[in-house]
Amino acid sequence: MALPDKATILAVLKNIAGPDGTANIVEQGLIGADDITLSNAKAIITVKVPAEQAQALEPMRLAVEKAVSAIDGIASALAILTAERQPGTGSPANGAGSPASSLSSPTPAAVAPAGPDAGIGDVKSVIAVASGKGGVGKSTTAVNLALALQADGLAVGILDADIYGPSMPRLLNIHGRPKPVAGRTLKPLEGYGLKVMSMGFLVDEDTPMIWRGPMVISALTQMLNEVQWGPLDVLVVDMPPGTGDAQLTMAQKVPLAGAVIVSTPQDLALIDARKGLNMFKRTEVPVLGIVENMSAFVCPKCGERTDIFGHGGARDEAARIGVPFLGGIPLDIEIREKSDAGTPIVIAAPDSAIADIYQEIAAKISQALGQESQAAGRQPPKIVIE
């Protein structure tokens, strides 16, 4: 059956009344063709609503999902509410006369669907694997560390928080769509024993996610709160590169047990890694340590070692700022080949020297999580900039 076009979907949505009841949601400008993403019989619809009415308009969001799901050619639909706060309506600064301004109330801002954080409540520890820039092997590191933690006897899940460039479906060779288990709660897919959620399960690999920040935040919030994660010992969050909306949302919505920073050794990468480190420090998230990826290349034919990106830069940076250095992972073609094949090296070659490195890093993370367990009940930090 052919996938319907956006005009057909908009025509159906004209039957849903807008917030004031005087016109439908299309005529009121709450949704347009640019707010619809179609891929493989799946539809994702973003609906722009007044910020002050967002919670009350949850029934409208459900009506959108129901209407679009009923269209011939649509197998499933996901509706996301987004909103823009008016300037001056955000959270106040830290105190009267304080020079600090809150970053927890930007314009635009996302509004998450109503609902309890039940899923996250069944997760003992949430850790973020982050980097200051792309191309440093963060996702490959995240998935191998998650599998190494699992091999250590922990129940582990992984959230692919990179909305624009999800990697987990390919890295773990997982295909399909999450199924609902109760209300809006979805059951995550599984790969090699890991519970996994990714935007890559909802859209085709070649489909670009041309979304503004509020849409990303809303989608990420839903993947955190409306997924049956637990019971888990650790949820590993594969962050998108940088220090933007996704990272701030994680710091606001979830009391992170800690963050792992991934960097390559050269100065250019370390400059950006410092930004990630400083962001987590500013938001009072413990930095569990730094991983130096692509640390050195050893020729498989002649055995000669070449420091393509330099060597030891991340170790030196960790010592300079006083955070643990978790380990160095070599630049090895087998890591790339296994990752592309959807069989991470910790699974494909568990007795290899490289898998041992991931296991050693995972053991350090487990130990650090035990040391930080007393902070498990802390409230999410406020994000401020001075």
Number of discrete helical segments: 12
Radius of gyration: 22 Å
Nearest-integer average pLDDT:
77
Structural class, from secondary structure content? alpha/beta
Main beta sheet strand tally, sense and closure: 8 strands, mixed
What is the straight-line distance between the termini?
A: 56 Å
Shape: elongated
User: How much helix is in the residues?
Assistant: 25-40%
Please, what is the oligomeric state? single chain
Uncertain residue ranges: 84-119, 372-386
Strand content: 15-25%
Number of strands: 18
SSE ordering? HEEHEEEHEHEHEEEEHEHEHEEEHEHHHE
Query: How do the strands line up in the largest sheet?
Result: 10-11-7-12-6-13-14-17
Report on this structure.
The chain has helices at 6-13, 58-69, 118-121, 138-151, 168-171, 213-225, 245-253, 267-282, 313-321, 333-340, 345-348, 353-372; strands at 36-39, 42-48, 76-83, 101-102, 109-110, 123-130, 156-160, 179-182, 185-187, 189-191, 194-198, 232-238, 258-263, 287-293, 297-298, 305-306, 325-329, 384-385. With 386 residues, the protein is of the alpha/beta class. The strands form five sheets. Strands 10-11-7-12-6-13-14-17 form an eight-stranded mixed β-sheet, sandwiched between helices. The longest helix is centred in the last third of the chain and has 20 residues, at 353-372. Mean pLDDT is 77; it is low at 84-119 and 372-386.
